[in-house]
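Give me the fold.
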Amino acid sequence: MLILAIETSTPRSSVALVGQDGVVADAALGVPRRHGEFLVPAIVFLLAQSGRTVQDVTGVAVGLGPGLYTGLRVGIATAITFASARGLPAVGLSGLDVLAFQARHVRRVICSTIDARRGELFWGLYRQAPGGVQRESELRVGSPDTLAAELQGLGEPCLVLGDAARRHAKELAVHHDIELDPTSAGHPLAADLGTLALPRFVREETERALELRPIYLRTADAKIGWEQRGRLRGGADS
């Protein structure tokens, strides 16, 4: 089994090849807004460097967000095209789940965050579970003060990770039970995405690539998504 993982929900794009023995190869690009230029060459590079071919890939995992609209659109479209061309199964996961997986050995509450722009954050709460982490809340979007109040209301220590935590460290650090993780990559990574998705492929808990949908937590983002979808299919702009 060889999984191609694609994660483009934040400014840092990444791709990886993951097998049952672990990560075979991975690559990341830290230059913002270059998802479209990076993805296909990176996939070709990883296959060549690992001595694999397109025919060796048995499934595609992709980050569904929440995150940057353009990045999500490019990543999901690439995943759909690759998987559909060969009739491969797909798994879509939230980038917040993937980010929390980086802290899977932590016994405290884990708060995974992604910068939502406009002075807001996307976040989800998790706890350690066998084989990884388990989400304990709905994915949410809101201000740093709203998140800080929610975490304070838990009444127990919490580890916060992600690029949004770094951006809004001053607002979050006022509460003593909130610790910001300085060791986290700050973004969900394709290598973690593939590792987290692999058991689902083994259990055949997959979906058709054309059924993949981005996760939108703001009405405005969802409206943009549907309008763009209409234009791509030749529909009206309104």
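The first helix runs from residue 35 to 49.
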